[in-house]
Specification:
Structural class: mainly beta
Strand order of the largest sheet: 1-2-9-4-7
CATH topology: Jelly Rolls
CATH superfamily: Jelly Rolls
Number of strands: 10
Strand content: 35-45%
Number of helices: 1
CATH architecture: Sandwich
Number of domains: 1
Shape: globular
Length: 144
């Protein structure tokens, strides 16, 4: 049942990611800062049926072999691999590889200790939907 509900959403979001131009947006570590993945915001919307919450849809692009800085998201995250293959590891869990067409969920405030493009020659791109409190940054580096 959940798959039937998510497939049209994922399809529409993937289409939007492919045809919509990225919007400039200040996201910590975003826009391809040296050594960091590129974050492009596709849409941000306050949610009238979830007072005080904002939904964010963005793409994350990893250069070949690139690894992200360990980070945390303040709200729930749904990630879908648009192209390539990534390895992801949440704190306390084993690393998992995801290929194009696969997805995963991240619980709020669960440290994301590894996210990397497994290819040394091709980029990897994710479509990410996440939830935050209004005005809250969607991602923050882990404090050391």
């Amino acid at each position: 049942m959940l798959k039937k509900l998510l497939l049209p959403l994922i399809g529409a979001a993937a289409f939007a990611a492919a045809v919509m131009p990225a919007q400039a947006h200040d996201v910590p570590g975003g826009h391809g800062a040296p050594g960091q993945e590129r974050l492009d915001v596709l849409q941000e919307q306050r949610l009238p049926d979830a007072a005080g919450r904002t939904g964010h849809m963005l793409t994350v692009t990893f250069a070949p072999g690139q690894t992200s800085v360990p980070h945390v998201h303040p709200g729930s995250v749904f990630a879908y691999v648009l192209e390539g293959e990534v390895e992801s590891q949440m704190e306390g869990e084993q690393p998992v590889r995801y290929k194009a067409g696969q997805s995963w969920y991240e619980a709020p405030n669960h440290p994301h200790v590894l996210a990397r493009n497994t290819s040394k020659s091709k980029p990897a791109r994710l479509l990410v939907w996440l939830l935050t409190a209004d005005g809250e940054a969607p991602v923050s580096p882990l404090k050391k």
